[in-house]
Amino acid sequence: MASFNFHTMRLTYFDGNGRADPIRLALRISEIPFEDERIQLRDWMGMRDSGDRDLPLCQLPTLTVNTTVYCQSMAQLRFVGRLSGLYPTDPLAQLCVDEIVDTCQEVLNRAPNAHDMNAKRALRESYAAKHMSKAFKFINCRLASSMAEYGKTTCCCGTDLSIADLTLYALCRLITLGEFDHVSPAFVDATRFPALAAVLQTIQQHPKMQKLAGDFLLTTSKIVENRRNNEFTSECSTAKTCINRKDANQINSDKIDTSVSAADSIIETRATAPSTMYRTWADDTALGKKCPSLESLEYIHQQKHAPAPNACAHRVIVFWASYADGDFGVLHDVSALCSKPCFESVQPVGISCDSLRDNAESFLPLIGTPVADLKISALSVDIPLAFDVAKSFRSALRATTGLLAVGVSMVFIVDKNDTIVWREQFSQTHAVGDGQLADQLQRLVDGQPLLSNGPRPTATEDDASEEENGTDVDSADSDGLML
Fold it and tell me: What is the pTM of this model?
């Protein structure tokens, strides 16, 4: 293990599987002390946009060493590899390790995306059949050569465990757990990639990996027995059809009947349950807290309709920013929702996350114009918009709610007693119509109890996968949450 003096080390990533896994593995099996900071997806937007955290290139994961924050997951992995002795010193051995690591990274980076789920599915299926298959055949060939040279119990690049093994292992685990969107868990098949399956088994049985007591360990039998791709595709298709026929109460209680077998319960949950990545749980820290006063806001649009201080009325608060053009649709949809006659008594307000008032006001000329990328013929914003002077309201809101950050496309419902009764995070890929905002607002206005999604589940495999499961947080977030 390399000698290096540091006081603290913190790895920051989403609460799930993905790009940080090889780094976590390297740190844990080497028993290097570090803080494993997990970020909930619904808080990521606000954290990224608020400027309250040092986020180089606005990406995750980050690795904070002492007081300096570093980005780029591969740079972090190689640093930890050198620190832990999992990165070889011999140049030729380094080349072998880097070849495997970079091939795995390329599989992640080149995965195609689309906002339309049907289009994304078609792109991913083609990608798996072509580029992914080509990459895995190449890896399998390399591993077969390594086995011929070093024996059947070889690792990726010889007999010593390295970051190449951890990277390959993490990628295969992501796929076999069904967390690589629209790529069958049966993709990693011992019949197609026998050398790969053998090396994965060797990696898992390595003494250093056994230290993890099953936390990261992959069920090798899933790889050996993955010969059911057609069955999986058929079952998931049936399950997705079932969910479209369920009402909101059934969805919220997660009581969804599918044709997927009990043996595939993990796959069943991810294929059918409504996404938990944006779900608001009953124990959300914001719910039940008092909303700070709006008096510090400076209104820049429709000031005459601004919520009156001490007004006894329900309110909807939506956060936006002039620079977040991909999220203009959320502001547009919230405005349309609050313009419905049934919500006439509700007082909406859009609060800018811009640092400067001039930047916030630069958004105003866009109102009424088309937004082609979002398929909006005329951007409609018929609610008051305000500038948050010195971020005072957001700072107060964070302090009150205990949220890590409050940012673009986060929406709050505040009742007439100034109590926050609902919070929901939207994005380009999770529109207002996909959430529960409208239902909850209608229930509040009608005097009915709001729907509850129950307390947040414990940190099980299902949770971690859904938080990570193939969400495109930001098109610029190439080293961030993926798949």
Answer: 0.52
